[in-house]
Amino acid sequence: xxxxxxxxxxxxxxxxxxxxxxxxxxxxxxxxxxxxxxxxxxxxxxxxxxxxxxxxxxxxxxxxxxxxxxxxxxxxxxxxxxxxxxxxxxxxxxxxxxxxxxxxxxxxxxxxxxxxxxxxxxxxxxxxxxxxxxxxxxxxxx
Length: 142
Description:
This protein is mostly helical and 142 residues long. It has helices at 28-43, 69-82, 91-104, 109-116, 121-128, and strands at 4-5, 10-14, 21-25. A hairpin with a 6-residue loop joins strand 2 (10-14) and strand 3 (21-25). Helix 4 (109-116) packs across helix 5 (121-128). It is globular and about 45 Å long.
């Protein structure tokens, strides 16, 4: 939870290989969904603290350690099975899409580079030329 800023719509992701931090801009829909998870957590009498993790429960924050990359892959496969409209989508493609959306919305290349934790602007520009984008999908909670 300490890495989520819902007011600014930002999420910080730490790379466990070298402890670098990447900042991800959250869409308004992601902020809405995380807000619902936050409210569900509070309604169950759980105090929101920095040590709670978004992954780990499908409708409340959970305590403990974050999932490994392998565990995230398992969660994504289960999610895609439960929601076939997301079949074929990967976390990597989501990263490409996030970077392209920032660029298309006028965010400076160097700010995108910093948010993505790229060591070189050349790496960021590769993402900007990528065709690995996912189409927007309106997730219906009803």
